[in-house]
């Protein structure tokens, strides 16, 4: 949908459904959870009966308030007259089940709502807008109704906006991002609740985990311009740390002076997950992610690499680092 009427067109499709099914990508981050639960709260306020499907549950980091959702896939996809997939640019990562992908029974009634610029539009209908967060797209859709946004919906959407902008610090933050945040605050969202949950609620065991990760598991390339950390299963077990709560961990690496591109490597069956961030606009990371069938944004992207072990993944990053910086030599 590219016309100026896209919020109302999307809203009309949502409100035409009595029993919509809402889902996001596997291993959901704050924007995936916030945009999905925020839309669900809004639809309930409109008299609809949405079902929220989150196979991986809600990580501790994002448990902002009570939420209605299920982790088990429904036994009958036909029970839903619309499937809504949020914040998902790659169909294979769709969270309709633990294995990913879009069930054949849902393809003809799939509405994709997303903000990733590399989303190819794989839904029957696609609401794709390049803004800071999918929560911002959902906000505009809800606002087009002309009715008040419930406080619970505003809280969840603010969670999505705050997390995907890194607390309004990342390059995707624009003037309109702040305007969206202001409207959510006007709707009753609690910035104090969101900020305390995301940034000031870190378990002590996680702080110990992060200290050891920085001390013993960071590697370097390109004379310090690139850094990555290896999260081994042993390290996770030692500190009883759940990688679903790791959204802020990569920012520790990003904060290292001189490191322009950083990555976090972790085990994700059947391969290895590589999350990447760049703080140099001349060195985007999304093309590297695309090379390995991943995706994301220019400055924040991820990919899953098939490899025999961590050493092979590190060798790939070291080899690719030369290509990353080829256009911006020092």
Automatic annotation (TrEMBL):
List residues of the DHHA1 domain.
238-317
Instruction: Give the E.C. number(s).
Output: 3.1.-.-
- SUPFAM superfamilies xref list: DHH phosphoesterases
InterPro entries to which the protein is assigned, alphabetical: DDH_dom, DHH_sf, DHHA1_dom, Oligoribo/pAp-PDE_c-di-AMP_PDE
Where in the numbering of this chain does the DDH domain appear?
A: 24-160
PANTHER family, per database record = BIFUNCTIONAL OLIGORIBONUCLEASE AND PAP PHOSPHATASE NRNA
MF term (GO), any: nucleic acid binding
| Presence of the UniProt keyword Hydrolase in the record | yes
What gene name does this entry carry?
nrnA_28
Which keywords does this Swiss-Prot/TrEMBL entry list? Answer: Hydrolase
Name recorded for this polypeptide: Bifunctional oligoribonuclease and PAP phosphatase NrnA
């Amino acid at each position: 949908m590219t016309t100026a009427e896209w919020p109302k067109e999307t809203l009309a499709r949502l409100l035409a459904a009595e029993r919509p099914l809402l889902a996001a990508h596997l291993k959901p981050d704050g924007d995936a959870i916030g945009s999905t639960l925020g839309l669900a709260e809004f639809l309930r306020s409109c008299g609809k009966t949405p079902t929220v499907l989150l196979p991986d549950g809600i990580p501790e980091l994002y448990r902002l308030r009570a939420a209605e959702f299920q982790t088990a896939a429904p036994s009958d996809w036909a029970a839903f007259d619309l499937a809504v997939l949020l914040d998902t640019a790659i169909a294979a990562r769709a969270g309709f089940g633990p294995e990913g992908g879009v069930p054949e029974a849902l393809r003809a009634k799939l509405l994709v709502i997303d903000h990733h610029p590399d989303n190819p539009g794989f839904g029957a209908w696609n609401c794709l807008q390049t803004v800071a967060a999918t929560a911002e797209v959902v906000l505009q859709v809800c606002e087009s109704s002309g009715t008040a946004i419930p406080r619970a919906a505003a809280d969840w959407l603010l969670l999505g906006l705050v997390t995907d902008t890194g607390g309004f610090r990342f390059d995707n933050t624009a003037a309109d991002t702040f305007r969206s945040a202001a409207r959510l605050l006007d709707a009753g969202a609690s910035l104090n609740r969101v900020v305390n949950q995301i940034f000031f609620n870190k378990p002590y065991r996680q702080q110990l985990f992060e200290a050891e990760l920085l001390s013993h598991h960071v590697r370097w390339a390109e004379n310090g311009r690139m850094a990555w950390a290896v999260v081994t299963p042993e390290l996770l077990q030692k500190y009883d740390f759940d990688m679903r709560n790791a959204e802020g961990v990569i920012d520790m690496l990003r904060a290292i002076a001189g490191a322009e591109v950083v990555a976090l490597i972790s085990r994700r069956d059947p391969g290895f997950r590589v999350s990447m961030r760049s703080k140099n606009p001349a060195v985007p990371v999304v093309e590297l992610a695309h090379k390995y069938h991943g995706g994301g944004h220019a400055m924040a992207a991820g990919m899953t690499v098939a490899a025999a072990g961590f050493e092979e993944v590190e060798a790939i990053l070291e080899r690719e680092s030369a290509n990353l910086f080829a256009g911006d030599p020092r």
